[in-house]
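A reminder before we start the practical. When you read a complex entry, don't treat the lines as separate problems. The point of joint prediction is that each chain is placed relative to the others, so the output describes one connected object in space. Small molecules and nucleic acid strands, if listed, are placed in the same frame. In the example below there are two entries. Take a minute to note the order of the lines before looking further.
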Amino acid sequence: MGEAGGHHSNPLMIQSKTLAPSTGAPALDFGSAWDYAAAPERVQVKIAARYGHFIGGKFVPPAEGKHFPTVNPATEETLSEIALGSAADVDRAVAAAKAALPRWSRLPARERAKYMFRIARRIQERARELAVLETRDGGKPIKESRDIDIPEAAQHFFYHAGWADKLQYAFPGRNARPVGVCGQIIPWNFPLLMAAWKLAPALACGNTAVLKPAETTPLTALRLAEILAEIDLPPGVVNIVTGAGETGAALVAHPGVRKIAFTGSTEVGKKIAASIAGSGKRVTLELGGKSPNIIFEDASLDQAIEGIIQGIYYNQGHVCCAGSRLFVQESVLDEVLVKLDIRLRSLRVGDPLDKNTDVGAINSADQLQKIRRYLDVGRAEGADLHESNGSPLPERGYWCRPCYFTGVQPAHTIARDEIFGPVLAVMSFRTPEEAITRANNTPYGLAAGVWTDKGSKIFEVAKRLKAGVVWCNTYNQFDPASPFGGFKESGFGREGGLHGLRAYLELS
Amino acid sequence: MAERLAVLKTYKLYLKGEFPRSESGRTIEIKDSRGRTLAHVCRASKKDLREAVRAAREAQPAWAARTAYNRGQILYRMAEMMEGKADEFVTTLSATVPGGKTRARKEVQAAIDRLVCFGGWADKFTQVLGCANPVAGPFHNFTIPEPTGVIGVIAPDQEPLLALISLIAPPLCTGNTVVALGSEAHPIATAVLGEVCATSDLPGGVVNLLTGLREELLPVFTEHRDLDGLHAAVASSQDRKTLELGAAENLKRVRVHTATLDWYDERDCHSPYWIEPFVEMKTLWHPSAT
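Here is the predicted structure of the whole assembly.
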């Protein structure tokens, strides 16, 4: 280890300035000692040349005969042709969901639960295949799809299956009844997991559903459709219509849909709210964020660094609750920046199918362009961009090195807008009061992180942060039993846990 | 001897703990069922509404920071003060609302009971609506309800006092502050409620009460970006739609009841499900380790 080890154990020996990317200081040069052998996932997954919608328990071609390509963002190869959903397709899917509703909702709850347990089991059993598919379609590192997305999707069905016959205990003093047909629109950042977040509580509560996966990541939802058919889920209980924004709009507007669940941007969320005002439809919205991650001087800094990394670079920063605004107490700012820079350099960016990869491909060309625009705006407005990670990037595909900005002012665009990429805005503060005020100074309120080893401080700060999820000395943890959702313009309603059931039940 | 001439009162707005007239100088004449002038009330303007929201915003953090026990006591104190003014409420209500004093007394009593009920909820809703979550990992994880912020209330003409209290008390008891527009047809009870608030240890700005025209002020409630929620009971589907558009403006939490619901149904109206729309569930994670 010698000198390199010395540097590692005491990074403060390195002046932060010498670590600026422009100088390219060899802070942690291990030579080839730590090179990883490439470890690509070798499971082969069959992908059909073309997919239809899943309606009434069967795959059916789109009414208008149109398809669109879904692309592997790490290679730019077209994986399959996906049905483009029209109003007619949505109509057909809602009709199937409506037809299935009476039988499904009146099924003894324990039987409903058993169907869901079956779904969970099959997801577990086909986990490897689903993980590879997820990574190829969306670009996320295989270690994330393998260890988080797919197992948690299965866990969501397990958790909610158990609720099906216990709903009368969830809301004391009330009779719980299903809402009806649910229209569910999900994003591209956690494709199968979001499908599970939406479908599991809906089914447990006795509803039927029409799910619209994101345009760029439909494959795992369609594989889930195969699983649903495989476990003999009654036809029409879950219908999947693929497409883009217009398909989603048709679903929202459909008079047969009684409840809308949407995860996506605040802009679209507001449009949905406007379009259904006065319609009697129920809605839950899980929208954007610009979540603060606050590091106090008395935090365990090494752990906090992991939290920062996990907070913003997890899933290429395509996370609605990403800790994209880092607030560091001034007294430890230099130390945190040094450690952050070192850690950032160690991230492996590249082939998402390689088990060593930490940061995969940006989900789409559009998203990459959007992120690059923000990098330009950040520099133009006067912040300093640090792209210290030197991973060699593949020639094809959509890539963005994880990076951070210093010299960020609260009014900067990169400190206010949701970028949805691996881009961190670093700011400093002096007092807890200032940290809380600045953390709350955003229309969003999805999540927040607080790092301090002082118990009383953590409770007080957590209490005063306007956010639906507060991670204390941790970040980006999720669980089916833990309600998730935002304050303010990050939306309303919760998903997961007891509170997540509420949106899928009529109480009387 | 000449008959004594009654002193006609002009009821004012209750705003920031004070009783201002409408900045617009406008008033509405209120007549009793026999057409005689009973009093005047202020016709609040858009500007009055915005002032009220400002006052409510300013008062909210301190109100939420009080102990739940203290908020409960203050709501109970409001009930005590209402009990003392019960006859005045009965007189003013029965003067304009059909059904006479018997009906009015029933309404006033139910309104007082409702305040007592939600005073009691202040230090219990957290336990009933919150919970600990058994996550699959070494974490403490729990969910607690917190007040949403500043809530706009629009009361109907049905049971004008009882409905107003039913709409105000649930958000109030958790630490929200309120800007309420009382019944348009029967506004005097709203104004008298202001006198109750002013004498019951309620900090200024926590409850703000306006009288005026629904048609004029409803869109302002909807569009106001510093209101976090709307709690209303309306008679028309158009009003319902107007209010629900508030969700599109800044993701307001909007709960609109039907004006004609059974306001005396305690099973419904005393339940924590009236509190639930105006609390935000906050979930805390903390690692558990030595």
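Discuss with your neighbour: Residues 70 and 122 of chain B are 9 Å apart (CA to CA). What might explain this?
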